[in-house]
Design goal:
The protein is α+β, with helices and mostly antiparallel strands. Helices cover about 25% and strands about 25% of the residues. It has a six-stranded mixed β-sheet with strand order 3-4-2-1-14-13. A six-stranded mixed β-sheet has the order 5-6-7-8-12-9. α3 (about 115-135) runs parallel beside α5. The relative contact order is 0.16. It binds one DNA strand through loops.
DNA sequence: ATGGTAGAAACTCTA
């Protein structure tokens, strides 16, 4: 029995709902973490998602941010945000599904290195690392999945020289992400051989997708016990090729 | 390759 866990920054659930429903129907993932839903809870398209065979928990706001978890089985123990980190933007929701603690994450973008938003991004990551340490105490089956807004290594960047020191790639951001992983998580994608130039996000501008000017910033991070069960992790570029796509592609990890 | 596009909302911000 396999369990397929996906993450997808949909950049407006309202606009992307047809793509999402088609993709759920085609891929039938067991659980999906969504980011940038940009929809208040009262407007969440729960009926359409239920009709597709999924339950949902969500935490959204108008215009910006917003996260959700969809699942084909029950979602229990739902929590919002990072404990002890006061934060207005809706970036974090967690639930237990299929015996796995699943966290849907939308990390701060950071805007520019050295900006106030960059400092906030680093603080957010520090809080995430502390929380992850707590969650991993004992034999935790924990999966953090989402738009981490950091490309972990140069091979996750289409042009590392051009991006050197820039937002998503700077050393402090990479260290901040590493601190989360050092709590005891592994990048599911790198458990397996992967094609060169594997990316999950391409800017809408400058025909970046056509030119494959991308970054891999959407990650599934697994605790050791889950990593041992992981049999594959792939990026599905198909939805990025559609008309009016999200700027992100979904990532799917398959657990045995 | 130093601009540009997309989304939401509202005459601009965020990514």
């Amino acid at each position: 029995m396999t369990f397929r866990l996906a993450t997808w920054n949909v950049n407006s659930l309202k606009v992307r709902l047809p793509h999402l429903l088609d993709w759920l129907g085609a891929e039938r993932p067991d659980a999906v973490c969504l980011q940038e839903t940009k929809v208040e809870d009262a407007s969440f398209p729960l009926d359409a998602i239920r009709a597709a065979g999924y339950q949902a928990v969500f935490c959204g706001q108008k215009a910006y941010n917003g996260v959700a978890i969809l699942a084909r089985s029950a979602l229990t123990g739902v929590t919002h945000g990072i404990p002890g980190f006061a934060d207005d933007p809706k970036r974090v929701i967690a639930a237990t599904v299929g015996g796995i603690r699943v966290v849907s994450l939308y990390a701060p973008n950071g805007q520019a290195v050295g900006s106030d938003k960059y400092a906030y991004k680093l603080r957010w990551y520090e809080a995430l690392a502390a929380w992850t340490k707590d969650e991993l105490a004992g034999d935790a089956r924990l999966a953090l999945a989402g738009d981490m807004n950091v490309a972990p290594e140069d091979r996750d960047v289409h042009d590392p020289k051009r991006w050197e020191g820039q937002i998503h790639v700077s050393e402090l951001e990479r260290t901040a992400l590493r601190r989360v992983m050092e709590a005891g998580l592994v990048d599911a994608f790198r458990l397996f051989p992967q094609p060169d130039r594997s990316f999950s996000w391409w800017d809408y501008r400058l025909a970046a997708f056509r030119r494959d000017w991308g970054l891999r910033i959407d990650l599934v991070l697994l605790s050791r016990s889950l990593a041992a069960r992981c049999r594959a992790c792939t990026i599905d570029k198909a939805p990025r090729r559609l008309e009016r796509p999200s700027d992100h592609a979904p990532v799917i990890a398959e657990l045995q």
